[in-house]
Amino acid sequence: MIYKTFNAMHFTQILKSFKNYVIVFSLILIVPHVSSAFPIFAQQAYENPREATGKIVCANCHLAQKPVSIDLPKSILPSSVFEATVQIPYDTNLKQVLGNGNKGAMNLGAIVILPEGFKLAPLEMLSQELREKIKGIYIQPYSIKYSNILVVGPISSNSKQNITFPVLSPNPSQDKNVHFIKYPIYVGANRGRGQIYPNGDKSNNNIYFSSHSGKIFDIQRLEKGEFQVFIKTNTGDEVIEKIPLGLELIIKEGQTVTIDQPLTKDPNIGGFGQGETEIVLQNPNRIKFLIAFFFTVVLAQIFFVLKKKQFEKVQASQMNF
């Protein structure tokens, strides 16, 4: 009886362990294909999202180029909160091809690479107006090591074309690695899905090309909606080109194709863009001295005018005498 109970318990533990392994294995298979669309997923593959050449790694999966810009103050004071607004223009009427082949709205993602010492402003330091701007948007540091790099996404493109990042500036009196100088800030943003998965596979958000020259002798639509294009090559071999879900063919049966000839329309309507700007960490003492200087100049001008008036009165009285 004890032996049977032990076997039952042992079998239950084995079953639970097997379920855990299945879950982990499933995540390993699924995550690379899900994690192809937004800057936040670059955390899985890159320690630093900006390469030595200056390229932001999001461009490795999002091959199309699109514009992006960032709006922020020209200068800021130490330990102050300011807004860095990333502007991502796109056509809200366009629909992209999803992984399941259906059409859907584009999602957005963005990354802001701040100078060292700058970081995401804590919620308690934000004004009510700024809290409203970031409502529903989850912004987080790229990693523990790079708290100066902020990422967000995916977020619905139906609600946002501008993404505001609340940033806290450092204080040189508290951090000796920070100085009152001009700093560069880098930004990247994408709309829509990428063309390449992190594991190197192509997504269905691509043009598919013929890998051989020859004649198409059959086109089959499979049960789930994919296509198989059968080509008889010039050497007499038969090859099959597999076209994934959601793509529109631009070839037909009996047509002759050449190597690298497009078989589908380009489904991609999104892309990635990056840019850079500068910001000055301003010393408040400089501003005080500048104000004092202007005040001194204005005061000197006032005294000069008064002295001139006094001199003119003396001259006038002497002439009358």
UniProtKB/TrEMBL annotation:
<feature type="domain" description="Cytochrome f large">
    <location>
        <begin position="38"/>
        <end position="192"/>
    </location>
</feature>
<dbReference type="GO" id="GO:0020037">
    <property type="term" value="F:heme binding"/>
</dbReference>
<keyword id="KW-0249">Electron transport</keyword>
<keyword id="KW-0732">Signal</keyword>
<dbReference type="InterPro" id="IPR024058">
    <property type="entry name" value="Cyt-f_TM"/>
</dbReference>
<keyword id="KW-1133">Transmembrane helix</keyword>
<keyword id="KW-0408">Iron</keyword>
<dbReference type="GO" id="GO:0009535">
    <property type="term" value="C:chloroplast thylakoid membrane"/>
</dbReference>
<dbReference type="InterPro" id="IPR024094">
    <property type="entry name" value="Cyt_f_lg_dom"/>
</dbReference>
<keyword id="KW-0479">Metal-binding</keyword>
<keyword id="KW-0813">Transport</keyword>
<dbReference type="GO" id="GO:0005506">
    <property type="term" value="F:iron ion binding"/>
</dbReference>
<dbReference type="Pfam" id="PF16639">
    <property type="entry name" value="Apocytochr_F_N"/>
</dbReference>
<keyword id="KW-0812">Transmembrane</keyword>
<dbReference type="Pfam" id="PF01333">
    <property type="entry name" value="Apocytochr_F_C"/>
</dbReference>
<feature type="binding site" description="covalent">
    <location>
        <position position="58"/>
    </location>
    <ligand>
        <name>heme</name>
    </ligand>
</feature>
<comment type="subunit">
    <text>The 4 large subunits of the cytochrome b6-f complex are cytochrome b6, subunit IV (17 kDa polypeptide, PetD), cytochrome f and the Rieske protein, while the 4 small subunits are PetG, PetL, PetM and PetN. The complex functions as a dimer.</text>
</comment>
<dbReference type="InterPro" id="IPR036826">
    <property type="entry name" value="Cyt_f_lg_dom_sf"/>
</dbReference>
<feature type="transmembrane region" description="Helical">
    <location>
        <begin position="287"/>
        <end position="306"/>
    </location>
</feature>
<comment type="function">
    <text>Component of the cytochrome b6-f complex, which mediates electron transfer between photosystem II (PSII) and photosystem I (PSI), cyclic electron flow around PSI, and state transitions.</text>
</comment>
<keyword id="KW-0793">Thylakoid</keyword>
<dbReference type="InterPro" id="IPR002325">
    <property type="entry name" value="Cyt_f"/>
</dbReference>
<comment type="similarity">
    <text>Belongs to the cytochrome f family.</text>
</comment>
<feature type="binding site" description="axial binding residue">
    <location>
        <position position="38"/>
    </location>
    <ligand>
        <name>heme</name>
    </ligand>
</feature>
<keyword id="KW-0934">Plastid</keyword>
<dbReference type="GO" id="GO:0015979">
    <property type="term" value="P:photosynthesis"/>
</dbReference>
<keyword id="KW-0349">Heme</keyword>
<protein>
    <recommendedName>
        <fullName>Cytochrome f</fullName>
    </recommendedName>
</protein>
<keyword id="KW-0602">Photosynthesis</keyword>
<dbReference type="GO" id="GO:0009055">
    <property type="term" value="F:electron transfer activity"/>
</dbReference>
<feature type="binding site" description="covalent">
    <location>
        <position position="61"/>
    </location>
    <ligand>
        <name>heme</name>
    </ligand>
</feature>
<feature type="binding site" description="axial binding residue">
    <location>
        <position position="62"/>
    </location>
    <ligand>
        <name>heme</name>
    </ligand>
</feature>
<dbReference type="InterPro" id="IPR011054">
    <property type="entry name" value="Rudment_hybrid_motif"/>
</dbReference>
<feature type="transmembrane region" description="Helical">
    <location>
        <begin position="21"/>
        <end position="42"/>
    </location>
</feature>
<keyword id="KW-0150">Chloroplast</keyword>
<keyword id="KW-0472">Membrane</keyword>
